[in-house]
């Protein structure tokens, strides 16, 4: 049995090791724009509303670390930044000579946009549910509905009770579309499946997510989509299957986590850096770089389930994956609020 404390400890250790390696966490002493360009190194900063351990921002963070290691950028960040401090932290980075500032803007959407407008020579690329804003505010989102659909195929094929569940953050378009895609996949292979849906009203509240998952399991669900962190914990305790989200989380329950949609921010980060370095950055919607065909999302490896999944189910997933990648199959984008059966 893996306890919540152990799960959280594992993620905190990952974050701590990354923090030591990158030296991030707080905005540095301001640099002038002139000194920032002295050695030709692109300086990139990130501002995150949630802790680094939260999977959504962790995927952005991991991609930026890769950019530091492979592209030679300078990278620092601030995490758990509250709305009241968001503008201040953004200003410190912009006035400190950072040419590219990234992060998640959802909870501080208007604040981030107003602040970016004050620094038109700085490139801003933020996660957002709204469009870009001229001249310098580009946006992205986790368009992972395609691998979510594929994971749904597996959930529908693996349930024995014909009851599956999903515990998600809140009924916003970004969450609704991956939840609906997952449900659609499950119903494609199993028309008799019943779905339980719960929203916890937070992007990061593992205890609450676990509590909601336990309630669904008690009601008969034997495969759960862990859209939020904390659900896998319940699945391990109650010995039911889990579908992870955003990253490969098999290590949190090797015998219970079958697979899950993975969001790879590398194509988005790489494109943003190239545009800034070339001096051609513009306000644009970069969401397309999260699609499977662009390498921005995929289905996590099966790990031990490689030998446990029925051959016909794996074949179905492989065929659908090939169709998606070739453009011959389009997963429906449904952003309506999903409801329990």
Care to give the gist of this entry?
With 341 residues, this protein is of the alpha/beta class. The protein contains 11 helices and 12 strands. The two termini are 30 Å apart.
Verbal overview:
The strands form 3 sheets. The protein has a 5-stranded parallel sheet with strand order 2-1-3-4-5, sandwiched between helices. α5 links the parallel β3 (about 100-105) and β4 (about 125). It is globular, with a radius of gyration of 20 Å. α4 (about 85-95) runs parallel beside α5 and α6 runs antiparallel to α11 (about 310-325). It has about 350 residues and is of the alpha/beta class. It has 11 helices and 12 strands.
Computed CA radius of gyration, to the nearest angstrom: 20 Å
Q: Structural class, please? A: alpha/beta
Which class of the largest domain in CATH terms? Alpha Beta
Largest sheet: 5 strands, parallel
Global geometry: globular
Strand content: 15-25%
- Kindly state the percentage of residues in helix: 40-55%
N- and C-termini, Cα separation:
30 Å
Tell me the total number of β-strands: 12
Strand order of the largest sheet: 2-1-3-4-5
**Can you write the helix and strand succession as a string?**
HHEHEHEHEEHEHEHEHEEEHEH
Uncertain spans: 1-37
Mean pLDDT: 89
From the 3D coordinates, which CATH architecture of the largest domain would you assign? 3-Layer(aba) Sandwich
Q: Specify the CATH homologous superfamily of the largest domain.
A: Response regulator
CATH topology of the largest domain: Rossmann fold
Number of domains: 2
Quickly count the helices. Answer: 11
């Amino acid at each position: 049995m893996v306890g919540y404390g152990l799960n959280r400890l594992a993620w905190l250790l990952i974050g701590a090791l990354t923090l030591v390696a990158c030296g991030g966490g707080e905005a540095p002493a301001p640099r002038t724009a002139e000194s920032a360009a002295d050695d030709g190194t692109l300086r990139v900063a990130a501002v995150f509303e949630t802790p680094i351990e939260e999977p959504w921002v962790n995927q952005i963070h991991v991609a930026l670390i890769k950019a530091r290691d492979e592209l030679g950028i300078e990278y620092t960040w601030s995490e758990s930044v509250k709305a009241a401090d968001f503008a201040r932290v953004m200003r410190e980075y912009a006035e400190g000579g950072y040419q590219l500032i990234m992060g998640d803007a959802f909870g501080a959407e208007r604040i981030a946009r107003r602040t970016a407008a004050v620094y038109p020579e700085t490139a801003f690329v933020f996660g957002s549910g709204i469009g870009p804003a001229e001249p310098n505010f580009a946006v992205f989102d986790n368009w992972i509905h395609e691998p979510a659909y594929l994971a749904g195929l597996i959930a529908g094929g693996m349930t024995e009770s014909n009851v599956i569940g999903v515990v998600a953050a809140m009924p916003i378009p970004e969450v609704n579309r991956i939840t609906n895609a997952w449900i659609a996949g499950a119903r494609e292979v199993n028309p008799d499946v019943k779905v339980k849906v719960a929203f916890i009203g937070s992007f990061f509240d593992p205890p609450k997510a676990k509590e909601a998952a336990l309630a669904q399991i008690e009601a008969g669900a034997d495969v759960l989509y862990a859209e939020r962190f904390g659900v896998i914990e319940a699945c391990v305790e109650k010995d039911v299957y889990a579908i992870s989200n955003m990253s490969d989380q098999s290590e949190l329950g090797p015998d219970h986590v079958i697979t899950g949609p993975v969001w790879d921010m590398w194509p988005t980060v790489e494109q943003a850096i190239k545009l800034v370095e070339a001096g051609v950055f513009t306000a644009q919607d970069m969401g397309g770089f999260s699609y499977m065909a662009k390498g921005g999302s995929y289905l996590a490896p099966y790990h031990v389930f490689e030998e446990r999944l029925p051959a016909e189910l794996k074949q179905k997933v492989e065929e659908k994956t090939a169709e998606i990648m070739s453009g011959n199959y389009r997963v429906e984008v449904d952003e309506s609020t999903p409801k329990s059966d």
